[in-house]
Design a protein that fits this description.
This protein is of the alpha+beta class and about 90 residues long. Helices cover about 65% and strands about 15% of the residues. It has four helices and two strands, in the order ααββαα. It has a two-stranded antiparallel ribbon. The radius of gyration is 20 Å and the shape is extended.
């Protein structure tokens, strides 16, 4: 899908993105929205759920590696500061 997103052309030849399209078809299931036939409801297939779990586990390992040398006190400070930032960003101006 990166090819589609970064394509300089407005249209992309079918062959150029066919492997990416096959991957998405395998990972996602689509059904017509019973409340509005003009839209679709998309969900993960069993293969999509497995792939998502693989990605989530890899992400967890990556984050653990990044923070391996950060002290517990610094991690606590970071969590506190991010919480403060979230509060500031959600308050009405």
């Amino acid at each position: 899908m990166a090819k589609v997103n970064s394509s300089d052309d407005e249209n992309m030849p079918v062959g150029a993105g066919s492997s990416e399209l096959r991957m998405w078809v395998r990972l996602l299931a689509s059904q017509v929205n019973p409340k509005d036939a003009r839209s679709a409801i998309v969900s993960l297939t069993a293969a999509g759920k497995r792939h998502f779990l693989e990605l989530a586990e890899a992400h967890h390992r990556w984050i653990s590696e990044i923070f391996a040398d950060v002290s517990d006190a610094d991690k606590d400070d970071l969590v506190r500061m991010l919480g403060n930032l979230r509060t500031l960003m959600t308050e009405p101006r």
